[in-house]
Amino acid sequence: MACNRPLWWWSAALAGGALAGVALPPLGSPPLLWVALVPLWGLGPVAACLWAATAVLLSHRWLLWLHPLDWVGVPLPLSLPLCVALWAGCALLGAALVGGWRWLVQRLGPERWGTALLAAALWGLVEVGLARGPLFWIGLGSAALPGDRALAAWGAWVGAGGLAALQLLLGWGLWRLWTLARARRRALWRAGLLWLVLVLAVQGLGWWHLVQVQRPGPAGDDLALLVLQPAIPTRRKFDWDQQQALLSRLDGALGQAEQLPVQALVLPEGALPLGQELPQPAAVQVLSGGFRQVGERLRSALLLFAPGAQAASAALDKHRLVPLGEWIPGGEWFAWAGLSAVGGVSPGAPSRLLLRPQGAIGVVICYELADGTGLAAATRGGAGWLLASANLDPYPLMLQRQFMALAQLRALESNRWLVSAANTGPSLVVDPAGVVRQQLPPFVPGRLLARLQVRHGLTGYARWGELPLALLLGAGAATLWRESRVRQS
Of 303, 300, 294, which is closest to residue 341 (Cα–Cα)? Predict the structure, then answer.
């Protein structure tokens, strides 16, 4: 029974989960994560539930900054309990998923090579699948950033799911070293040497890839964009003084864009309310977050304004909606006002490719940055650079840094420059090697003259998707089958 577990067992499970929560961005420390994975592999399903709940509570504590919710109609006495319930619900969901995964590992035998391969691949595939839905933000696949770009560079070959699997295998190797050390087996030094060689090989190949990415290649078109960070508090967005401040900052940005040699002015998610046109015709193309009505459905979208126009001529709708704020289960069948200030929002098409006369781009709106498959598909469709439009207010700096780490990973996966335009930050430019080249200070109004380059060609991940994970899963299953046959013989 779990209640009869010794104190060291509870301490190891809690400590492992705490280390995992800290190892995720904004810190992004893979060695810390590998140590944190040792009790996950070694203590069983119940400990795995406790491990996962602790990790989620630490890495997602920014959810508490949703309080107070009275500005969206939630009574103040219910606001904090609702935010705590959401935070705890995420932890319980993580505990259930990781506990079920560890139960499977227990049944197969955690000490077996085949189990390690199969379980790591399964975890990676589940992370990829969850990232396509509404109930996932950040996982082990993102833990390499910002601390270890060489490890994160493997994302160009295997994506975030493959990175998660690789981290789990390295953690499994540490756990096996621990079990060998406790048994005082002579094979300890061989296993330790093999693990060290694997880590060095991963680092070496990662740095080799980063060097290749940064080498001058076929010249692409150099671009200059003007990014506006309006820093309008979401809780006061519809106050008269904040609306006037937004219009003033937009006018100033339009005027500066006319004077500078830029291709487009970029505004963050939700910068324009439903039905609002530009206050004046723009001399350049404008890419702005806003809203549009499609039939009876309201959609959050990136709106494209052609030079000289005040009305949008094209749009890309947000597909992956934020739980509760924009989406609830069954919302498509019931009339629902939503918890967001704009009311209920309907999802658009899944494609993240925006076609423009100046060249296609890959676009994600806020929460969609967690899903790398959409931008990989956009690069296959011809996107020459990536744009992330977001509004992370009222969340703290912690969430902005997690967003930055995800932006770095998406740039590495696709070998594309990425520009982020966010209401309060992070507004930045990331190069294809995952380096943040330019950034505005957070939480203050500002304008960023972003410089980047159009890229062509496809990474291995953009070409193959999750095929490496599927092959790893098959290799694990084949290894287990072969071991079973040998035992039967």
Answer: 300
Point out the catalytic residue in the list 127, 326, 366, 413. Answer: 366
Report which of residues 87 and 483 the model is more confident about. Answer: 87
Cβ-count burial 450-484 (b if 16+ within 10 Å, e if not): bebbbbeeebbbbebbbebbeebbeebeebbeeee
Token readout for 374 is 């959409």
Picking from 50-64, 99-113, 327-341, 356-370, which range would have the lowest pLDDT averaged per residue? 327-341
Residues 6+ apart with CB under 8 A from 305: 278, 282, 285, 286, 287, 288, 311, 312, 313
Distance CA 367, CA 326 (A): 11
**Does 49 participate in catalysis according to the annotation?**
no
Predicted TM-score (pTM) above 0.85: yes
Whole-number Å distance between alpha carbons of 355 and 65: 36
pLDDT of 125 reads 98
Report pLDDT digits (tens) over 339-397. Answer: 444 456 889 999 999 999 999 999 999 999 999 999 999 999 999 999 999 999 999 99
Residue 422 phi, psi dihedral angles, 5° rounding: -130, 150
Q: What mean pLDDT is reported for the chain?
A: 91
CA distances (Å), 179 to each of 110, 172, 175, 183, 256, in order?
Answer: 12, 11, 6, 6, 63
**Whether 226 contacts 447, CB under 8 Å:** yes
Annotation marks residue 483 as catalytic: no
Tokens of 76: 């103040």
pLDDT of residue 476: 96
pLDDT the model gives residue 55: 98
Statement: residue 215 has pLDDT above 80:
no
Which residue, among 177, 130, 170, has the nearest Cα to 154 in the 3D structure? 170
From 49, 83, 127, 269, active-site residue:
269
Residue of 271, 336, 330 whose CA lies nearest to 298: 336
Of the candidates 90, 127, 318, 413, the residue annotated as catalytic is 318
Q: Answer yes or no: 269 catalytic.
A: yes
